[in-house]
Design brief:
The chain has about 290 residues and is α+β, with helices and mostly antiparallel strands. The protein has helices spanning about 110-115, 130-145, 155-175, 185-195, 205-210, 215-225, 230-250, 255-260, 265-275, 280-285, and strands spanning about 5, 10-15, 30-35, 40-45, 50-60, 60-65, 70-75, 75-80, 85-90, 100-105, 125. A hairpin with a 3-residue loop joins strand 1 (about 5) and strand 2 (about 10-15). Helix 5 crosses helix 6, helix 7 crosses helix 9 and helix 8 crosses helix 9 (about 265-275).
């Protein structure tokens, strides 16, 4: 697809047909494009059949939605949400308006937008278009141009990778703009991280770095909120998982020890006996209440 003159704009429209694998994911690309508008440019009113994120790369645009009018400038972006009707136009005093857009769909699309601070009630962000975000979009557009056709899994995997890279860049800019998370937010984030990585030699220093705190402050604040120190909580997660494996699998004590990140089964057995009041072999043989 190449740039064409459409009367009210000079534009490139890029279309993608998601394959069966892509539509099993939480989000997938539908189409994209970019345009240099002409005086009098207007789009809509139009009700969206998917989600469409528009980047105002230069100029001044007026967005109308739900009886409100929003002025957007170069560096801003806005999203047209699925099932909603939108109209937008180039400001008459604007000498040049250029846009890029990416349309996508899927059950996880609205959640990804929300994580970046874009919601149906506030469908725009100001000053969020940086070089990294634009580069990610350019890379995605180039892949669409080079589509091989058909339901190619390697192509679909690359498309999904670049789409998620774009959302990663979008969320990066949001993190840079947003204030520090509240106490409960970083506690939940730390707990999720521990539950995912407790068996991987996780350290308190890593957790503190994840939240942007020094080690001592993090340890004290975590213990106040959770009732256990970070190390105690890491140990609890590992032991809970060990108990689950002992009850639900035939894995040996040695296999469980290594699976949970212990250097040898003796260290695991000591830790488990301290936690459960009996060694792993006895725990497995204990009578279970039916």
């Amino acid at each position: 697809m190449y740039w064409k003159d459409y009367g009210h704009e000079h534009a490139e429209f890029l279309y993608h047909t998601p394959g069966s694998w892509e539509q099993e994911q939480s989000v997938w690309v539908v189409r994209g494009g970019q345009s240099v508008t002409k005086p009098g440019y207007q789009a809509g009113p139009k009700r969206m059949d998917c989600y469409s994120l528009h980047l105002v790369t230069e100029g001044r645009l007026i967005l109308r939605e739900a009886e409100r009018e929003i002025e957007l400038l170069g560096g801003d972006l806005f999203c047209k949400f699925k099932g909603r009707s939108y109209t937008y136009h180039r400001d008459p005093i604007c000498k040049r308006l250029t846009l890029s857009w990416l349309a996508f769909d899927g059950p996880g699309a609205e959640s990804l937008l929300g994580s970046a601070g874009i919601t149906p009630s506030v469908p725009y962000l100001r000053g969020r278009i940086g070089a990294a975000l634009q580069a990610a979009l350019t890379e995605l557009f180039q892949l669409i141009r080079n589509t091989p056709g058909g339901d190619s899994l390697p192509y679909a995997l690359e498309m999904q990778s670049l789409l998620l890279k774009f959302f990663a860049r979008l969320n990066q800019t949001s993190l840079e703009k947003h204030p520090a998370p509240s106490t409960m937010e970083w506690v939940r984030q730390s707990i999720r991280y521990i539950e995912l990585h407790a068996a991987e030699g996780l350290s308190v220093e890593q957790l503190a770095a994840l939240t942007g705190m020094n080690r001592n402050y993090f340890s004290t604040a975590f213990a106040e909120q959770v009732g256990l120190s970070p190390l105690q909580y890491i140990s609890k997660v590992r032991m809970d998982k060990a108990a689950e494996l002992l009850d639900s699998t035939a894995a040996s004590v040695t296999e469980i020890a290594y699976s949970l990140g212990y250097g040898n089964p003796f260290a695991f057995s000591r830790a488990f006996a301290k936690y459960a009041g009996m060694p792993p072999s006895a725990y497995r043989k204990r009578p279970l209440n039916k």
